[in-house]
């Protein structure tokens, strides 16, 4: 708390003005009405305070805890300042090459999971509004972005503000249970989704499929991004990583409930007993958060406030009164807005969602009132900022103090050594976490999991919490500390997971520059993780996730790391982890990895343009074979752009077979492209040109990137006898600006 | 092992191409690449793409023989390079024979060998070249091959009828390269 960036108060005094401003900014048409509501609420509050409760309610009910200075900065989903540090200048400032977007996606994919457990009456209330899935479905999309900045303190006490923080709201009943109707694994489902996306968007993809950003790096295709997002949320909740375990449980009742406190008690008990309880490898030390959903149209607010006061007395601060309208909203209503799209949908949900869309024939997303949306946003923000984040910070601090520091100290090291050569030191070891002797320690080999209170599991949970709080330094050091322990216990999934996350958090840490961290050790960790996942556990989903993370993060590091990124992408293809469409996507990724390695220095060496061009061409070929001429033509164009620097001025390949292959490919792409758009290419007299030059330039006419590098291909036999080129320096950069640079 | 040998001019124009197979260990000297017959352009693509690495490696390595510089993992193709003082580059692509048992590209999840490239131990290698293309024996054999080709190349280039940058069409040179390939690879 020494840096100037911490000047922003962490808990601002409750005030109405920013809240009203935000209401105005989200739904301008409702501004006066909303204002009145707030004021009348204020009056009611005053009444109720005088009547029943000494508790100042204004701080919790209508308080929108927007921090000063953040109300103006929220503009939709902005992920650019994700590395902006309030106290230290970010080393990545001014770097925007599209990989930041992917990076932000990856960071947001590892967000805390919050379980939502609503009572029957709450679900009924929400179902009346047109949300079939009940309360969870209503609030789920809002969890993915918490409005405003979220300030998180890391383990050394410095604060950082994040604009793109989000949480994942999960249905309580679904946690830890595999979906019943799973006939195929998530990988096969992802492939199916990809195929569907290709089919549905065929023709529409057009020129917008590949947006090139300013720097000229190939931006990621939407397809690729959606693939990555599905991959990142497809891994089922597992014992070995706690990202899917609930950090908090939101227990919701509605104002219609006849016996509210009884219901709350019942819902609370569901978490620990009964058939709905979580699997026993889930740590039960999560936060309970109580929500009272008030029906604005049917119920009396004074009654609800009375009940809410009672809840606060019983359960303390972690309560919220959510005011919703109970009638269904239709498009024509004044204040209607569509429910935001969920960004993080698992492949299974994608598949079922697509079917639902086909059934309805229209856009099936329900509408809700703007005032409801505002209330839910405020609720999510309060939940995250005032309860979940402090809870996690606190947990990390406690575990760091009680478990990790002991393990880190000299005696902890000694004990971990002694456990390796088991036989002595078992009594002292039991003092750490009450573990019994034996070489396998706390690892339960039948369940393949640690019990949640063993030090191994707690350390993993602490590292995951630190990771979710974006304190990658602490996370990396903790993963690093425990990864060998898992190996000793032969807990291979834990072993793989710790290696994977250790490498990922090292790569995500923005302050460790590429010089500092050793890429070899990161590579080694990915290798180990991948080996453990694949060979020891046959867990293809996690292996693919691990390798994809490696590809994207190493690519975003730039420099020599892009080489290993490309290597891992090739490894994915080699292992056969992805289906046929996935193979093409990864071919594209390899090209993108090589393309992002730029030439340095005057002599322009160190670039990988030829490699990138080759992979792009191969991707074009494969897209064509997969019947996607639009995508093929985009790839081909990309290849031309990449080859522009390395080929001679006329754009011809020096090697005859390459040239003929590329010419044929161009011709085929063009023919298929036109056929797909309903033209018969063979009718056009111009396309009968044997050299195919006319066709190529015509094809390029419909794109914005017009520079045709193909030119007239030189006579193929002349390529070998090109005597106009004198003997040059072997390095001979094609565009010779050696002196200028 | 299958080999694809190319001489590139300083402007990346190919001066000479030859594909041949190993003659050691009972090989018949016929190239059998992993690509289908219709995809022989892949060799040229791989060679061409390795020029990126070559341009980098030639400034960091003092010798003329640059050893193994690049790999194309999907086809297990290895590139070895040799620089001449005139700026011509010798590039040799070598590819171990395809072993259906060791690589399971499309079928297996998890059954594949993570060590990747090596592993063709089935060949009883009495030859100087072990099955592993990056082993020191291979490097040495390729070096001998390159040196011998370089000698022939210099003799060919000194011919009064040859101008620098022309494609090498001399049948004598071709036979000499073939002989060197037989001898060393």
TrEMBL record, chain A:
GO CC terms in record: TRAPPIII protein complex
Biased composition (Low complexity): 69-79, 423-433
Superkingdom classification of source: Eukaryota
InterPro entries (alphabetical): TRAPP_III_complex_Trs85
Compositional bias (Polar residues): 47-58, 80-89, 442-452
Pfam family name, one: TRAPPC-Trs85
Region (Disordered): 1-100, 423-452, 680-741
Protein name: Transport protein particle subunit trs85-2
Lineage: Eukaryota, Fungi, Dikarya, Ascomycota, Pezizomycotina
From TrEMBL, chain B:
Stretches with biased composition (Low complexity): 116-131
CDD domains noted in UniProt: TRAPPC2_sedlin (cd14825)
Protein name: Trafficking protein particle complex subunit
Organism this protein belongs to: Penicillium freii
Pfam families per record: Sedlin_N
Domain of life: Eukaryota
GO BP: endoplasmic reticulum to Golgi vesicle-mediated transport
Any GO CC annotation of this UniProt entry: cytoplasm
Region (Disordered): 116-138
Lineage of the organism: Eukaryota, Fungi, Dikarya, Ascomycota, Pezizomycotina
């Amino acid at each position: 708390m020494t840096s100037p960036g911490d000047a922003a108060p962490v808990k601002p005094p409750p005030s109405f003005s920013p809240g009203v401003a935000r209401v105005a900014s989200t739904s301008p048409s409702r501004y006066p009405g909303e204002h009145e509501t707030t004021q009348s609420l204020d009056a009611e509050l005053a009444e109720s305070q005088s009547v029943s409760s000494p508790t100042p309610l204004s701080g919790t009910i209508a308080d929108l805890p927007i921090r000063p200075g953040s109300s103006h900065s929220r503009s939709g989903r902005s992920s650019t300042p994700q590395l902006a540090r309030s106290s230290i200048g970010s080393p990545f400032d001014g770097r925007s090459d599209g990989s930041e977007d992917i990076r932000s996606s990856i960071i947001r994919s590892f967000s805390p999971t919050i379980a939502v457990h609503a009572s029957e009456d709450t679900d009924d209330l929400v179902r009346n509004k047109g949300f079939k899935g009940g309360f969870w479905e209503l609030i789920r999309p809002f969890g993915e972005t918490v409005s405003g900045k979220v300030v998180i303190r890391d383990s050394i006490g410095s604060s950082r503000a994040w604009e793109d923080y989000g949480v994942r709201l999960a249905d309580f009943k679904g946690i830890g249970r595999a979906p019943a109707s799973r006939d195929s694994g998530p990988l096969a489902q992802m492939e199916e989704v990809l195929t569907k996306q290709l089919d549905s968007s065929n023709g529409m993809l057009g020129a917008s499929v590949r947006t090139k950003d300013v720097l000229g790096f190939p931006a990621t295709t939407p397809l690729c991004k959606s693939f990555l997002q599905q991959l990142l949320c497809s891994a089922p909740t597992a014992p070995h990583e706690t990202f899917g375990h609930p950090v908090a449980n939101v227990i919701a009742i509605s104002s219609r409930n006849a016996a509210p406190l009884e219901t709350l008690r019942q819902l609370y008990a569901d978490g620990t007993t009964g058939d709905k309880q979580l699997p026993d490898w889930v740590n039960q030390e999560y936060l309970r958060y109580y929500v009272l959903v008030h029906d604005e149209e049917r119920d009396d607010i004074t009654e609800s406030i009375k009940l809410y006061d009672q809840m606060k007395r019983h359960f303390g601060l972690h309560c919220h009164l959510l005011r919703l309208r109970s009638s269904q909203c239709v498009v024509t209503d004044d204040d209607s807005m569509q429910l935001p799209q969920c960004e993080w949908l698992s492949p299974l949900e994608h598949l079922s969602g697509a079917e639902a869309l086909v059934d309805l024939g229209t856009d099936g997303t329900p509408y809700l009132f703007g005032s409801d949306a505002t209330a839910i946003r405020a609720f999510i923000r309060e939940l995250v900022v005032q309860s979940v984040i402090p809870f996690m910070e606190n947990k990390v601090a406690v575990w760091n103090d009680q478990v990790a520091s002991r393990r880190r100290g000299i005696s902890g090291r000694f004990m971990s050594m002694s456990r390796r050569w088991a036989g002595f030191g078992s009594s002292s070891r039991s003092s750490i976490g009450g573990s019994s002797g034996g070489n396998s320690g706390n690892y339960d080999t039948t369940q393949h999991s640690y019990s949640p209170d063993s030090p191994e599991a707690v350390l993993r949970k602490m590292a995951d919490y630190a990771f979710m709080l974006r304190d990658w330094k602490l996370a990396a050091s903790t993963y690093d500390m425990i990864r060998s322990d898992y190996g000793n216990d032969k807990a291979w999934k834990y072993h793989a997971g710790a290696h994977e996350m250790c490498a990922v958090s090292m790569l995500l840490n923005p302050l460790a520059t590429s010089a500092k961290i050793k890429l070899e050790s990161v590579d080694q960790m990915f290798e180990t993780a991948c080996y453990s996942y694949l060979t020891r556990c046959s867990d293809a989903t996690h292996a693919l996730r691990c390798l994809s993370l490696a590809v994207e993060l190493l690519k975003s590091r730039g420099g020599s790391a892009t080489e290993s990124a490309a290597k891992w992408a090739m490894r994915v293809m080699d292992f056969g982890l992805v289906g046929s469409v996935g193979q093409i996507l990864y071919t594209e990724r390899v090209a993108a990895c090589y393309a992002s390695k730029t030439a340095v220095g005057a002599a322009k060496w160190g670039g990988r343009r030829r490699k990138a061009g080759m992979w792009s061409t191969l991707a074009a070929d494969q897209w064509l074979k997969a019947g996607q001429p639009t995508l093929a033509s985009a790839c081909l164009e990309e290849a031309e752009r990449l080859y522009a620097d390395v080929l001679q001025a006329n754009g011809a390949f020096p090697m005859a077979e390459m040239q003929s292959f590329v010419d044929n490919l161009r011709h085929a792409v063009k023919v298929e492209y036109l056929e797909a758009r309903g033209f018969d290419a063979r009718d056009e007299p111009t396309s009968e040109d044997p050299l195919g030059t006319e066709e190529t330039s015509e094809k390029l006419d419909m794109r914005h990137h017009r520079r045709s590098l193909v030119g007239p291909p030189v006579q193929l036999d002349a390529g070998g006898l090109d005597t106009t080129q004198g003997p040059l320096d072997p390095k001979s950069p094609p565009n010779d600006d050696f002196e200028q640079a | 092992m299958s080999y694809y040998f190319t001489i590139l001019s300083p402007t990346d124009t190919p001066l000479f191409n030859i594909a041949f197979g190993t003659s050691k260990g009972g090989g018949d000297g016929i190239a059998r690449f992993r690509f289908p017959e219709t995809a022989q352009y892949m060799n040229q693509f791989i060679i061409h793409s390795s020029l990126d690495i070559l341009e980098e490696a030639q400034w960091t390595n003092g010798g003329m023989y640059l050893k193994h510089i690049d790999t194309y993992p999907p086809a297990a193709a290895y590139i070895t390079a040799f620089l001449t003082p005139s700026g011509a580059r010798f590039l040799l692509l070598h590819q171990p024979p395809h072993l259906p048992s060791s690589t399971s590209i499309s079928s297996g999840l998890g059954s594949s060998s993570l060590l990747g490239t090596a592993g063709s131990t089935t060949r009883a290698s009495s030859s100087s070249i072990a099955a592993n293309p990056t082993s020191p024996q291979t490097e040495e054999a390729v070096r001998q091959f390159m040196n011998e080709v370089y000698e022939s190349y210099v003799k060919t280039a000194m011919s009064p009828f040859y101008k620098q940058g022309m494609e090498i069409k001399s049948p004598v040179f071709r036979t000499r390269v073939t002989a060197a390939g037989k001898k060393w690879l």
